[in-house]
Amino acid sequence: xxxxxxxxxxxxxxxxxxxxxxxxxxxxxxxxxxxxxxxxxxxxxxxxxxxxxxxxxxxxxxxxxxxxxxxxxxxxxxxxxxxxxxxxxxxxxxxxxxxxxxxxxxxxxxxxxxxxxxxxxxxxxxxxxxxxxxxxxxxxxxxxxxxxxxxxxxxxxxxxxxxxxxxxxxxxxxxxxxxxxxxxxxxxxxxxxxxxxxxxxxxxxxxxxxxxxxxxxxxxxxxxxxxxxxxxxxxxxxxxxxxxxxxxxxxxxxxxxxxxxxxxxxxxxxxxxxxxxxxxxxxxxxxxxxxxxxxxxxxxxxxxxxxxxxxxxxxxxxxxxxxxxxxxxxxxxxxxxxxxxxxxxxxxxxxxxxxxxxxxxxxxxxxxxxxxxxxxxxxxxxxxxxxxxxxxxxxxxxxxxxxxxxxxxxxxxxxxx
Length: 417
Ligand code: NIG
Ligand code: FE
Hints:
Elements: E1 4-14, E2 34-43, E3 46-52, H1 56-59, E4 65-70, E5 76-78, E6 80-82, H2 94-101, H3 106-111, H4 116-124, H5 128-144, E7 147-153, H6 160-176, E8 181-188, H7 199-216, E9 222-227, H8 234-246, E10 250-255, H9 263-269, E11 274-277, H10 283-290, E12 295-298, H11 300-306, H12 313-318, E13 324-325, H13 339-348, H14 354-361, H15 363-367, E14 386-389, H16 397-400, E15 407-412, E16 415-416
Parallel strand pairs: 1-4, 6-7, 7-8, 8-9, 9-10, 10-11, 11-12, 12-13
Antiparallel strand pairs: 1-2, 2-3, 5-14, 14-15, 15-16
Helix pairs in contact: 5-6, 6-7, 7-8, 13-14
The structure holds N-(iminomethyl)-L-glutamic acid and fe (iii) ion.
């Protein structure tokens, strides 16, 4: 049976796109197509029609509206598409935060067995059920903050058993989640302490044990490597991505967070769906990305929180590139998954406009999860995952009013959440 939901009194319906547009790049990112004083009708879970409030009577002539949602003068936008998170973890790491305040760097803490290895130790001692419980809570929280699709990585297991445990938790989240989830296998997130003198030993474990088992159980959609200074080299990344390709796992990699390491180039070489972080992006990286289908993903929360440079998003958009932005929600470098704050940092620190920041966190985020045929814009036939804002005077008010929440309500699969 078809049921219809009407969202009425929308001050401005933002992010309207033709169905064939799967991403926005360069100067296209400055435009956020909209209709002021609008309505939107949802058929079951799908966007059915939209237009001006004055045409509503005409639009509802042949259908019966069963549910009404009054936007009360708020704006309606497509939900945020968060294409990079690590929300399955065991414990927060605020003690490292304090060490950094006192002058230790992220890399120094990692080299001393903290950081990712610290998270791994804690996760190895936690049951699948408890990990699920915690991650599910985080998932519900970010949905209420406007996230309408999410990618989640493993990478705090670092043993065959614990990487599989993490991916099973993500699989369980997929089973219960109202929003789409993509799972990424990040066994190559750090070198475990016991393999410090035998890096190849751990890489062999990934190649010969983790990958075949994970592929066999279909536990991952994508494959990730932390290709950076002090973590995995370009050569190791190349080897790992070759192996992943044999299992049809597309790369989405961590690259150029800590230096100009060649991470972007090796990702593009392997036709990565996205290369993420990119705090160190120069002409060579931009040139390489311009000749690819790879989405560059910036993680401004991480720059803010660690005090490292921001991805040069302004320069990249001006060069004609698409730019996507995600939360990187994790206990080490971004202990917060609120996408509204990502949008604020994008404007204040990366100097991109509110329109560009919304495109970066909606349609381009969907592209970075291969979801943009179904999510990421206001398009007839796409799933109705929406944000209804509080009554605000302009789009710019969302990033301007940083740290506050302009999200009033969210709609998931056509229903108020
Ligand atoms: O994206 N940079 C690598 N991985 C994560 C952080 C992991 C951690 O510190 O726990 C990131 O920032
Ligand atoms: Fe990350």
